Amino acid sequence: MRWGAACCWFDSVVATDDRLAMVCIFSMHILIVKLSSIGDVIHTMPAVAALRRTLPTARITWVVERIAAPLLLGSPGLDEVVVLDTRRWRRRWGTAATYQHLAICLAALRRHSVDVALDFQGLVKSAAVTWYSRATRRIGFATEALRERLGRWAYTEQVPVKQGEHVIRQNLRLVATLGVPMSETYEFLLPPLTVEHERVARQLTAQGVTGPFALLNPGGGWVTKRWPPANFGQLADLLWQQHGLASVVSYGPGEEPLAAAISAAAQHAPVVLFPTTLRDYLALAQRATVFVGGDTGPLHLAAAVGTPIVGLYGPTIAERNGPFAPQDRVIGLDLPCRVDCHRRTCRQHICMEIPVALVAQAVALRLCHA
Predict the structure, then answer these.
(1) How much is the pTM?
(2) What residue ranges do the domains of the chain occupy?
(3) Whole-angstrom distance, CA of residue 233 vs CA of residue 296
(4) Would you state the pLDDT for residue 15?
């Protein structure tokens, strides 16, 4: 009998043989399926941390896409990380290298028998991973909460969510099916960052940043989430004049023009352009006095390391996926079109026309509670 099947049986007779039931729990292998994006992976960490606290001897494996894998590799609390690269596979489908890599990943999913697979993603591809694992229990969200509803056929159980609830709380409800209590404090299973802290410190010093600084992030996966670079430049001047904060502008691949535009728009403030890797960004954010940016991966990374945040929200709602510290500030314009928008493109795009003065005021308020 596989341990997963045994678990279901022992649950019904735990009063008869407590020792066997405990062996079952301790031997459990749990598969976490959260492939991407960066923010989504961060928002899943508190649920997995709570799972580890409740089942300290269980084996926990996380399946993730290559782009977000650096956040998990070497992470405490995980026994194994299986890295997929579906984007590359799609681009190079039919090549021997793709088939070889795919075969290695599929073999890793079945190297150890899986008792429970938890799909935090709600996509067809994540549901397919859940199903392929052959887990006895395959748990996902309720059909109406799935991003791609066809995935429901992979699950043996589904968990309802509360509409409008923060995604971290939703993820905690998924692990609650394994007896994990709903925690009010969030822990993030981030890898050690000693090397990254040393590298970031050297780079900041080399670029003349020796005092407190604001971390500005102009990018965003959706164009509709971006605050204009000219506004960031004006904000940098205000932060320098009012708080003595230099500005460090982070950016990812393809976002160099956005960062350069901020530097050009700032008239007085020292502005440093700072490209980073994911793990370097975590170290950089931990050193920042405040973060300012839209609803994108860097904001969620900054939240995970406890950086004070001022979030700028347009087509998305902060109540569901915004910063969670009570002191953090969120700004969004009161527009009827923002209700359940989630548009990646928009001809009007007025929701991000947030006044610079309003953002500067929010930063001042956040710094008062830092």
Answers:
(1) 0.88
(2) 3-178, 194-368
(3) 19
(4) 36
